[in-house]
Specification:
The protein is mainly beta and 182 residues long. It has a single domain, classed as Jelly Rolls (Sandwich). The chain is 0% helix and 47% strand. It is built from no helices and twelve strands. Strands 1, 2, 4, 7, 10 and 12 form a six-stranded antiparallel sheet that branches.
Amino acid sequence: MIGDLDAGSTYLQGTIGTAANNVVQLDGTAKLPAVDGSALTGISTGVFSDVFSATNSGLQSIPSAAWTVATFDTENVDQGNNFASNKFTAPSAGLYIFYASYAVLHASGAGTDQRLSFHHYNSSDVSQEQISASKTTVHEAAQNGMRIFNLSADDYVNVQIYQDSGSARNLDKCQFFGWKIA
């Protein structure tokens, strides 16, 4: 049995081993011995699962005054193969966190409105979370945002961009990534 410890203790008394109620001791190389983890409880296997990261390798034309789905042609990470056709599809129910960023080239002009939107689609409705920025006279306007959605299996999320400069602008340096957090 293990006795009470106080802040000044340097030794722990008890039975050393890897069975129940034993104190686990490091081996001669300062590594933990093999321990049977089948009885461990309270450990979520869903934390940081279903991770994806996608980017675009070139420019994408974004028309003025129209929502446009951002395209991603490079998958950097796709754990579970849940990212395809510019969207992430949830393999199971849970909380998911998403992040996106981009730059719009030559986004100058007084009153230019630029928006990033995460669209969550499920079988019954669409939820849109927007991040807006008004740009005035800049050469390149960058924007980013992060959102958490409670998804059901087969719900999906994509990124859409809006700008109203009066003519098409090029989307550059776009990235989209996320993962399941609970």
